[in-house]
Amino acid sequence: MEAEELRVGFVGAGRMAGGLGRGLLRAGKVPASNIIVSAPSDRNLAEWREWGCRTTHCNLEVLQESTVVFLATKPHVLPTVLQELRPAVTSQHLLISLAAGVTLQKLQRLLPTGTKVLRLMPNLPCVLQVGAAVFSRGTGVGDGDAALLQSLLSPCGLCEEVPEPYINIHTGLSGSGVAYVYLFAEAMAEGAVKMGMPMGLANKIAAQTLLGAAKMLLETGEHPAKLRGDVCTPGGTTIHGLYQLEKGALRATVMNAVQAATERACEMGED
Ligand SMILES: NC(=O)C1=CN([C@@H]2O[C@H](COP(=O)(O)OP(=O)(O)OC[C@H]3O[C@@H](n4cnc5c(N)ncnc54)[C@H](OP(=O)(O)O)[C@@H]3O)[C@@H](O)[C@H]2O)C=CC1
Ligand SMILES: O=C(O)[C@@H]1CCC=N1
Question: Which residues bind NADP(+) (predicted)?
């Protein structure tokens, strides 16, 4: 289907919906006039109107006006929203849930039999087209529907189909992982401030350091340990810094963070 013909809806207009919406718009994937968004308040909708999208307080209207519908409410709200949407769902719709933890089995249970539903876990950098998203498909979702989602999200960054158990792991690694990186960036900059560098400059350099390191990882394809070794002069500065990170158990702490967030996603699926 051509982008101009595709009608895309968002139920929920918050940060993640906004990230995906702006990613799609910036890439010219779907014209703004073909996007309709719903939320109970105007808090987030005003911004969507500025982008040229249509907005409503009625979730059913989104379903009636679109074929591809992103379900972008918080996970605990989703069952109520699906109960409301259920009577208007048809076999023409492709529903895509962003809700952390909410399994395909649960989504399928809450929707009419045969509904085409996908489970997507994006992350916020998709707004700058450097996101990392994974998805799994529910029963009855064909290759064409999966390809449509991949094509829609292709301008937003990486988008891979994975076995469903990987989605909670991706949530712990990447959906939430963005926040761990901000914490690390803040700590790096504060270290520099402690040593006398102005905060604005320290923040800028910390961000550029993360960007450069991430690009090196992606573009060389090298293992992180190899690239780390390249920075370390024997007896030099880096090994002294790394020793402090190892003493502070950074590696185990980060592994624990990914585990805790993954386990929380699994728990949220049980609610
Ligand atoms: N933030 C992130 O980095 C990521 C989030 N996600 C997932 O995305 C989903 C949304 O999270 P996020 O964008 O952060 O949350 P936000 O709180 O920013 O947005 C939630 C949106 O849902 C709307 N909403 C609340 N109740 C209803 C309802 N009954 N019907 C329709 N809309 C409703 C809110 O309305 P109003 O505008 O009136 O407040 C708001 O627009 C979650 O399921 C989360 O797990 C996934 C990956 C990353
Ligand atoms: O914190 C959360 O639950 C959501 C899911 C991934 C990022 N934010």
Answer: 72-75
Measured by CA distance, the residue closest to atom 15 of ligand 1 is 14
Indicate which residue's Cα is closest to atom 4 of ligand 1. Answer: 16
Indicate the SS3 state at residue 37: strand
Looking at CATH, the fold of the domain delimited by 177-270 is given as ProC C-terminal domain-like fold (1.10.3730)
DSSP SS3 for 218: helix
- Helix, coil or strand: residue 13: coil
Q: How many angstroms from the chain centroid is the CA of residue 152?
A: 14
**What is the predicted ipTM?**
0.98
Q: Which fold has domain 8-163?
A: Rossmann fold (3.40.50)
Which whole-number Å values give the CA distances from 57 to 13, 60, 61, 161, in the listed order? 10, 9, 8, 32
Cβ atoms of 35 and 28 closer than 8 Å: no
pTM for the model stands at 0.95
Per-residue tokens: 63: 């379903």
Return the SS3 of 110. Answer: helix
Which residue among 176, 263, 266 is best mutated to probe the pocket of ligand 2, counting the most ligand atoms within 8 A of its Cβ? 176
Hey, what are 16's tokens?
A: 């993640």
User: Tell me: the pLDDT tens digits for 97-152?
Assistant: 999 999 999 999 999 999 999 999 999 999 999 999 999 999 989 999 999 999 99
Domain boundary assignment for the chain = 8-163, 177-270
